[in-house]
Amino acid sequence: MQSLEDLYDIYVRTRPIKLSFEQFTLFSEFFPAVLVIISDGIFDYKEKTYLQKLVHSLGKSFTEEGYGVKRVQELESIFLQEFEYLIKNIEAWKEIYLDALKNHLQNYPESKETILDTLYLFAENSQDFAEPETNMV
Predict the structure, then answer these.
(1) Residues 65-74: pLDDT tens digits?
(2) What is the pLDDT of residues 62-109, one digit of tens each?
(3) Quick check: 41 and 130 in contact, CB under 8 A?
(4) CA–CA separation, 46 vs 106, rounded Å?
(5) Cα angle vertex 109, ends 108, 111, to 5°?
(6) N or C: which end of the chain has fewer CB within 10 A?
(7) Residue 12: which residues within 8 A CB-CB, separation 6 or more?
């Protein structure tokens, strides 16, 4: 089973991003919400809006940790860019991410609730919680 540390190493070799491991960890915990957002197979204006909301929520957590406005905006830009990359390359990354997250959640079970809350929030907002979103959750 792949660890989140392994995923981080693979990812930054593939995509030279300016994220610390801590930032990447939180980014990765939001990955399942991206799967929900794109679960109907369409990535159009509505899904892009949901993705931007997701990125803003992710940035908000760093604001709460004391990051300055400029750095949070930089992080949100990186998060949006990387989520869009992952969406375009979902087949290459989906199983690797899910495997690493499964391992991560075994070590940090307290993260499960936040991930599930985020999943349900975006599933309910996307297509009124239709069958694709239900199946993905």
Answers:
(1) 999 999 999 9
(2) 998 999 999 999 999 999 999 999 999 999 999 999 999 999 999 988
(3) no
(4) 33
(5) 80
(6) N
(7) 19, 24
Q: Which of 92, 88, 80 is nearest to 51 (CA)?
A: 80
pLDDT of residue 126: 54
* Strand ranges (E), the chain: none
Helix pair angle (21-29, 4-14), 10° resolution: 100
Q: For tokens 């609730």, what's the residue?
A: 113
pTM: 0.84
Residue 63: HSE in the Cβ half-sphere, 13 Å Cα cutoff: 12
pLDDT band at 136 (very low <50, low <70, confident <90, very high): very low
Q: Taking the CB of residue 137, how many other CB atoms lie within 10 A of it? A: 17
